[in-house]
Amino acid sequence: MSVKNYGLVESLEELQEFVDRLLNDGLPFEFDIETGYDGPDKSKAQLNPEIGFIVGFSFTNSSQWARYVPIRHDYDPNLDPAQVARIIWPLLSSGLMIAHNVAFELRFLAAFFREYIPELAAPTNGYVPFRSDSMLEAYALGEFFRNGLKPLTLEVFGHKMIEIDELFPGVKKEVIRFNTLRINQQVITYACEDALWCLANHEKHYERVMRERSFVFKEELLIVPILCRMQDFGLQLDWSFLMRKSVEAKEFSSAQYSEILQMIEDLVGRPYQINLGSSQQVSKLLYDELKFTTTRMTKGSKNTANPKMSTDAIALERLSRTEPLVKKIVEWREVTKLIGSYLDKYVKDYNFDVETGRAHPSHNQSTVITGRFSVSDPNYQQLPKHYDYELMDGTQFHMEFRKCVIAPEGYYIAGLDFSQIEIRVMAGESQEESLLRAFNNGEDIHAQVASIVLSKPIDEVTEEERDKYGKTVNLATGYGLGDEALADRLAISIEEAALFMEDYYNRVPNLKAFKDEMAARGRRDGYVENRFGRKMTIWEYQNTNRWIRSKGDRASFNY
Predict the structure, then answer these.
(1) CA 311 to CA 287: how far, in whole Å?
(2) For residue 470, what pLDDT is reported?
(3) Is 190 left (phi over 0), alpha (psi -120 to 50) or beta?
(4) What does the alpha-carbon distance between residue 337 and residue 399 come to, in Å, rounded to a whole number?
(5) Which of 241, 235, 236, 234 is nearest to 343 (CA)?
(6) What SS3 class is residue 396?
(7) Helix 102-116 vs helix 81-92: angle between axes, to the nearest 10 degrees?
(8) CA nearest to 9, candidates 150, 204, 191, 170
(9) What is the pLDDT of residues 442-451, one digit of tens each?
(10) What angle do CA 335, 340, 341 make, to 5 degrees?
(11) pLDDT in tens, 518-536
């Protein structure tokens, strides 16, 4: 592989020459930013333009060279950011820009332009048009295990790029900031590599993705500006509510702990000290001291000569149905997790926007293989459940976590939900007559499935049976739950769960045939496609572990 020409732009005049050259060439160019922040270490602050800033950027329109422009390093000479903004505005307004995860670049650039050239940025709020996103190109092709620039470049070109850890040895990735680096050749190469290999991936994939996956790819590109507006606007959380509940939860957790210690003392007949957060100590108490038993073994010992009973969430949940002490331990763990993973964490990590008071979640566009979004920091798609606990002395703790999400002034929250959407999709794709008939007649599909599973008339199915059997079996069908997972949810034996599913599929033959057809297609081709042309590689089939390969059949149907 030829040596690349990487360098530093050291003057505004040199930058202007490069911009003029790129505009005259009229070719797609890659643009990549490096970000940082000031003040004390803060998790992922460098990823949020509300508190972070652009430290420098790299660009190229060739596979042979790239340049880095420093504008906000702490120790080295930088180019004046206001002058840089005026120089690069025409280039970035050309619509020829390519980036890897372009939404990230766009949001930081918009904030940068609003700050330094507000009169030019005002009509578009600082946003500029773009040509493509090499990350979304790879994602739409559906052939790569990971779509990050560095793993993608290694897979496609066999080139190992410099990792950010090499620039920040011993520093946690969550708190790194590019502005603290002194500019040297390694730093320049790191930044320039991002630009050059992004362009290389674009040149490799763009024409093909436009030819083979045009609908899906264009859809992804159209979502980007909407995504940027969503993330700029943010999510209003009731911080005072979270802080009040944190204090309340900590007081309640302490009382829970004391109550549990008293229960243990009553059971063993002596004072007993234990760290309930220690799996080893909890295991010793439950299985050695109290002689409780479970059929669930630890993963590491399951297939050995001396299997050990597990204290994971599923094992304790099973035991809690019959053992009051275990139920109290499970509840204590839930309150402890609520405090550490939600109440305190949300206030500490996400309450940083002093202007709006909102959190700004990251919407991950190319993470989930099926095309939906995942969300992080915070993951508001999966907010915790209701919390309702009571101690033996009558002390109670209640919290509905979703109440922390509130409407900003001048707005309101509307709740919408698809009606049993997964089951409708399964019915339509498989043309399963019993399910289609139930939908066409306006029947309750969960009650219908409970009726099938329990072999009883639908008008005799109770509300509890509808929720316990109908909903759960529908979930098991659509998301490929195995017999063991279904047994856990229904609190029945694995054998009973297997019989449930066998009887269910016997009564929905078209659905079973469709499921088998998708598995056969996945095994044959190594991927499946949905009606919109999204290709989803079944990576499980490439694993040497037979158990993981078996999950490929369920994935083929689910995807």
Answers:
(1) 10
(2) 83
(3) alpha
(4) 13
(5) 241
(6) strand
(7) 130
(8) 191
(9) 888 888 878 8
(10) 95
(11) 999 999 999 999 989 999 9
Summarised one tens digit per residue, pLDDT across range 476-497 is 777 777 777 788 777 778 888 8
Helix (H) or strand (E) holding 497: helix 494-507
CA 401, 403, 406, 411 dihedral sign is positive
Apex 553 CA angle, 547 and 557, nearest 5 = 145
Q: Are strands 29-36 and 97-99 parallel, antiparallel or unpaired?
A: parallel
- Cα–Cα distance for residue pair 470/450, rounded to 1 Å: 4
Torsion angle (degrees, nearest 10) of CA 239, 240, 246, 251: 180
Nearest to 507 by CA among 444, 443, 447, 454: 454
Nearest to 195 by CA among 105, 71, 261, 113: 105
Would you say 432 and 448 are in contact if contact means Cβ atoms under 8 Å apart?
no
Q: Any idea what DSSP says for residue 40?
A: S
How is residue 440 written in tokens?
Answer: 């066409």
Q: Report how far Cα 290 is from the mean position of its chain's Cα atoms.
A: 40
Distance of CA 467 to the CA centre of its chain: 28
CA 376 to chain centre: 6
- The angle, 0 to 180 degrees and rounded to 10, between the axes of the packed helices 494-507 and 445-454 is 110
Count of residues for the chain? 559
**What mean pLDDT is predicted for residues 235-244?**
96
pTM for this prediction: 0.89
Q: Count of CB atoms within 10 A of residue 409's CB?
A: 6
| Dihedral angle computed from the Cα positions of residues 405, 411, 412 and 417, in that order, rounded to the nearest 10 degrees | -80
3-state SS, one letter per residue, for 277-320? CCHHHHHHHHHHHCCCCCCCECCCCCCCCCCCECCCHHHHHHHH
Distances from the Cα of 470 to the Cα of 402, 455, 559, angstroms: 26, 12, 22
Two tokens, residue 172: 């946690």
Dihedral sign from CA coordinates of 187, 190, 196, 199: negative
Closest C-alpha among 434, 442, 439, 458 to residue 509: 434
Residue with the two structure tokens 């009509």? 123
Q: What percent of the chain has pLDDT over 90?
A: 71
Place 1 in a pLDDT band, splitting at 50, 70 and 90.
Answer: low
CA distance 141 to 150: 17
The residues with which 359 forms a beta bridge, in sequence order, are 235
Query: Quick count: other Cβ atoms within 10 Å of Cβ 512?
Result: 18
The whole-angstrom separation of Cα 286 and Cα 179 is: 52
Residue 300 dihedral angles phi and psi, to the nearest 5°: -70, -25
| Termini Cα distance of the chain | 39
Cα 369-163-171 angle, rounded to 5 deg? 105
In this structure, what are the phi and psi dihedrals at residue 535, rounded to the nearest 5 degrees? -90, 130
Say how far apart CA 30 and CA 186 lie, in whole Å: 20
